[in-house]
Amino acid sequence: MRKWLLILSLTTAILSQKALAEEGGSPLAPDMMMIQLGSHHSNLSAPRNIGSFESFNPGVIFSWEVNSSRGSISAGVFRNSYGSPSPVLSYSHRLKDFETGYVAAFAGIADYGSDAEFVNNGGLGSLVPLAGLHIRHRNFYGQLIPAKEEAGWGAIVVFGLQFDL
After folding, report:
1. Yes or no: is domain 28-164 CATH 2.40.128?
2. Which of the pair, 52 or 9, is modelled with greater confidence?
3. Are 144 and 131 in contact (CB under 8 A)?
């Protein structure tokens, strides 16, 4: 409960920066907010002691545009598929813009804490590398993240809502 209270406090602080920016007062204001809702694991097996992946993965992620709006840096937190909060930091670069959205490639890292033991993370301790495609259509987004396990390759599909601030 304490972690989620901290997350709510940070979200409020970031949104207040946006309000200050609109009054000409804060260069720290984010340009975009993503509300992560859930995920689906395709061709991936949950560890035996977990049973199954959790598909309800709420989270809040803020983005700041860089590189003339082609790229963005994002930071936030989400509930990982094992049920624990995971802070995340990533960079994305738009590959193709459309009238109603875009496709971007992204790479980043999330801190899974003790849940990292269940992930093939290349010996990075609690850190889990993430990379994939981000597709936005109006205020909806989806991400396709390839994932490797001992039996082969699978994918994680993440979805949620995305708003310009």
Report:
1. yes
2. 52
3. no
| Alpha-carbon span 48 to 126, nearest angstrom | 20
Which tokens is 55 given? 């598909």
Whether the CB-CB separation of 153 and 41 falls below 8 Å is answered with no
Q: Give CA–CA dist 116/110, Å, rounded.
A: 10
SS3 26: coil
Q: SS3 of 14, please?
A: helix
Residue bearing tokens 């709006």:
69
Q: What are the distances in angstroms from CA 120 to CA 124, 150, 152, 155, 163?
A: 9, 9, 11, 13, 32
Q: What is the C-alpha to C-alpha distance for residues 41 and 55, in angstroms, rounded to an integer?
A: 8
| 3-state DSSP assignment of residue 18 | helix
**pLDDT the model gives residue 79:** 96
Q: What is the mean pLDDT of residues 20-24?
A: 54
**Amino acid identity of 25?**
G
**Residue 18 tokens, joined:** 């946006």
The pair of structure tokens assigned to 157 is 């599909």
